């Protein structure tokens, strides 16, 4: 898919911006703090209705402004879809084909993006929450069912944790209601865990090929879904539901004591192994970076396989973090295939040589100086 144009009003440091993009590589160039990342962020928000940088939508509205507006047109194999998003103090409104969507889950998935920022290079090394977020954001874009189950799960988990605290403080005594919540939680939790394992299996296949190429056949990358439950590659939702419910039931008293749910997808993690060794613990920084790059590039292929369309790739200041060899792999993998948006303070070295006909946008203080 291609984002042909974008319109921003009162978004971050942009007053009013109308811009047309190239279907190839779009380069946002400028000094620090001029609005390059803000522009990339607006595309991410247009796709997912929320930012990767903040959980607070109000930060997206231009200071002193009362609302922020983003719109764009997405060209797909079966036609062009206009998307619109409005943020104000009451919340947000999302439109597809000029029709307001009652649920954001109906909107998400129209525009698919993969963001690669320097922080993603710590996907392997960072905290488990980062890898869970990675799974939820990527798989949610590919599957409405995953998105729906995650939303339901989050709501019930919150309710169950509150109820556990009330039981702990003896404000409630009814354990039957806790069992009802456990049952619902186990049902949605099992759906999420099985879907994660299935998606990871596919992602692993793509990532292995890429990692093999980058490491010139020296390294074999494998994934492992780490859970307190046993979730085999061919596990059924029913079997995981039963396991999870049994664990929740068995540990009720401990959970009440702690006032928190101890089992489920919110506690799981993803491990990357290179030649059977955990990259997080034993990998060199280079291996950790190659792994992160392989995973990101694999996502592009997985999304194409799942949705029939290539996603957009957003590269936020990431080239400067990669050595020439990894930059070359990245740029050759995407060229002529994926519409790409990248931010940089200067286009030099390998990137300048490899990127064919980039469309360059010079940005200064939220204003586009020129396009060529
Ligand atoms: N809600 C907002 N309203 C107005 N300006 C904002 C808002 N949020 C951020 N900014 C401004 O946007 C600028 C940062 O822009 P951005 O993060 O896009 O920088 P950048 O060009 O990517 O720079 P770097 O290369 O340092 O990452 C800062 O000057 C900041 O003050």
Task: Name the features.
P-loop_NTPase, binds adenosine-5'-triphosphate, DNA repair, Rossmann fold, 6-stranded antiparallel β-sheet, about 375 residues, single chain, RecF_2, ATP-binding, DNA damage
Describe what you observe in this structure:
By secondary structure, the chain is α/β, with parallel strands linked by helices. It has a domain at 1-111 and 312-372: Rossmann fold, CATH 3.40.50. The chain has eleven helices and 15 strands. The chain has helices at residues 36-48, 104-107, 128-142, 144-168, 175-214, 237-250, 252-258, 279-282, 285-307, 324-334, 349-354, and strands spanning 2-11, 14-20, 25-29, 67-76, 79-88, 91-96, 99-100, 113-116, 221-226, 269-274, 277-278, 312-316, 340-344, 359-364, 367-371. The strands form three sheets. Strands 2-1-4-5-6-7 form a six-stranded antiparallel sheet, with helices on one face. A six-stranded mixed sheet has the order 8-12-13-3-14-15, with helices on both faces. A hairpin with a 2-residue loop joins strand 1 (2-11) and strand 2. Helix 4 crosses helix 7 and helix 5 crosses helix 9 (285-307). The radius of gyration is 22 Å and the shape is globular. The two termini are 22 Å apart. The mean pLDDT is 94. It binds adenosine-5'-triphosphate. Adenosine-5'-triphosphate binds next to helix 1. Belongs to the RecF family. One of its GO terms (biological process) is DNA replication. Keywords: ATP-binding, Cytoplasm, DNA damage, DNA repair, DNA replication, DNA-binding, Nucleotide-binding, SOS response. It comes from Paucilactobacillus oligofermentans DSM 15707 = LMG 22743. ATP binds at residues 30-37.
